[in-house]
Amino acid sequence: MTLLQIRNLSVVYHNGSRTVTAVNGVTLDVEEQDSVGIVGESGSGKSTLAMALLRLLPGRTAKVEGEVLFGGQPLLELGERELSCLRWKELAVVFQKSMNSLSPVHRIGTQMADVYRLHEHETRLSKKQVRERIIKLLESVRLPARVYDLYPHELSGGMMQRVSIALGLMHRPRLLILDEATTALDVVTQGQILREMMELEQELRLARIMITHDMSVVAAACKKVAVMYAGHLVEFGPVQDVLRHPLHPYTQGLLRSLPSFKGAKDHIRGIPGSLPDLSSPLQGCVFADRCEHAMPICRQAQPVDTAYSGSRRVACHLIGGEAHAAQ
Ligand SMILES: Nc1ncnc2c1ncn2[C@@H]1O[C@H](COP(=O)(O)OP(=O)(O)OP(=O)(O)O)[C@@H](O)[C@H]1O
């Protein structure tokens, strides 16, 4: 069943006279218990997309358009009260900097208990019961019970990020969004946490969106991948299919720039050029200026997001009928 339906979502930032279209017409489904990696280079709009889903963007400067249904509820139309019931309990997020948001002068357990109480109004657990629950939660992310009584500075980066994940899982949400949550960690710790996450989400029947610029993280830990470029979702599909047979020239370039996916180091190639100016109106394909296969139509019309096969989708004039129709 589909848990999250994102339809034609756009986010425009207004800063004085300048407007930046950070997310541009994104359509994406996340099934229950699915794991979707959103990848793209810095500035492609990944975090803005996550913040828009969580309604965490400042209404004054960020205009969000489109439709988002979460478990059938229209997320973008909910009032603050309905939203606060959903956040943490149904929909939780772990940011890269989540660990910095803990207070340095209070013990981990006390802070977790505060978060628990803030969002749990129905069940009145005793102090002891809350402590037990939190210790169980810490153990579920492979942290020893003694962490409950420690201060943030007494934990390593990996342990702190495990605490942040435990906080995200506190109310057993149906969807967990990890925004570069493991990026700052060393590769070994990152790998361990990802493996544990995957075990845990099977147990909790949790769906996960993982935002990262690291394709190897998506390859290791996600079932599906959504590739973003300059605010556009350019390709979507099962991870193994996209890795083996990338359709969009941007995805192809992204994979070529990774040593682990395409042979020897001397074959590594970056993608020449840089992201387009997101404050200028766009006529053709957003990737046309950097695309080695660009055709005249690519500079004239935006490609339509087209179903390719199975659940694969791609927005490129090379794929589908448009290029052929124009010839
Ligand atoms: N508050 C803001 N006001 C104006 N522009 C913004 C704001 N926040 C982000 N942007 C712009 O929106 C675009 C998308 O940024 P975003 O942070 O969502 O990308 P990202 O893919 O998550 O990048 P990163 O991986 O570096 O976090 C960028 O061009 C960025 O400069």
From TrEMBL:
Record keywords, A-Z: ATP-binding, Cell inner membrane, Cell membrane, Membrane, Nucleotide-binding, Translocase, Transport
Annotated compartments: Cell membrane
Molecular function GO labels: ATP binding
Membrane topology reported for the UniProt record: Peripheral membrane protein
Domain ABC transporter: 6-255
Annotated NCBIfam families: oligo_HPY
Protein name listed in UniProt: ABC transporter ATP-binding protein
Organism the protein comes from: Paenibacillus zeirhizosphaerae
